[in-house]
Design the sequence.
């Protein structure tokens, strides 16, 4: 059986010899127990994926050298999620699974019915781990929280935006989405307020996901899965 080669996200590896990020040193040395001469796959969006070899392990620094390029990054459809903050354990699930399914941007939203504050840096680390495990070459961005009303008034223009509204009247079926770059807005556990629904219906296209009421994390994962398959 072929030996598993670890995948490690490295932001900067433009030169043949490079240092691993500080955040990866403990993971590589103590968790993976890698040694000088061991090989691994290093990747990022700009440089692609490279087979690399550890040159030197110091207490607080690991240097490596590139051997050969395995893959270059190719962008497909961009998928954004504007999701109202939910319970931390459920938000972690959203970040992990939607990263695996191809989400490229997460926008953390606060609404009238939001009752949670998530650790954004921890969510970013989860996104890196999910990208390593799912063999992605890019890391999705996770934006700091903003009020949903402010976000809706100045939506990122590179996406066509849809809002998942329960049993939306005249809502577009999610399977009918055809645009290349799409964004989905997902409400909190208590749903959108009346004011928020009015703003979102003016600025985005409502979509219907199911005859049933879905939890926020289920809706987020479903939207990403649908967009990733189209």
Sequence:
């Amino acid at each position: 059986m072929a030996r598993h080669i670890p995948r490690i996200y490295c932001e900067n590896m433009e030169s043949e010899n490079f240092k691993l990020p500080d955040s990866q040193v403990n993971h590589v040395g103590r968790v993976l127990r890698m040694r000088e001469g061991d090989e691994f796959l290093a990747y990022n969006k700009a440089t692609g994926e490279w087979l690399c070899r550890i040159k030197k392990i110091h207490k607080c620094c690991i240097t490596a050298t590139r051997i050969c390029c395995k893959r270059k990054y190719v962008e497909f459809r961009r998928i954004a999620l504007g999701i109202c903050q939910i319970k931390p354990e459920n938000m972690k699930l959203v970040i992990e699974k939607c990263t695996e399914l191809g989400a490229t941007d997460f926008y953390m939203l606060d609404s009238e019915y939001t009752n949670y504050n998530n650790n954004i840096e921890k969510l970013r680390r989860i996104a890196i781990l999910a990208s390593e495990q799912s063999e992605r070459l890019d890391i999705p961005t996770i934006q700091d929280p903003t009020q949903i009303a402010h976000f809706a008034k100045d939506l990122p223009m590179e996406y066509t935006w849809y809002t998942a509204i329960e049993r939306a009247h005249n809502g577009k079926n999610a399977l009918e989405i055809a645009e290349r770059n799409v964004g989905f807005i997902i409400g909190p556990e208590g749903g959108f307020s009346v004011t928020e629904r009015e703003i979102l219906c003016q600025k985005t296209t409502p979509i219907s996901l199911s005859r049933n009421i879905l939890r926020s994390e289920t809706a987020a994962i479903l939207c990403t899965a649908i967009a990733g398959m189209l």
Summary: Residues 7-71 form a domain with the Ribosomal Protein L25; Chain P fold (CATH 2.40.240.20). The mean pLDDT is 89.
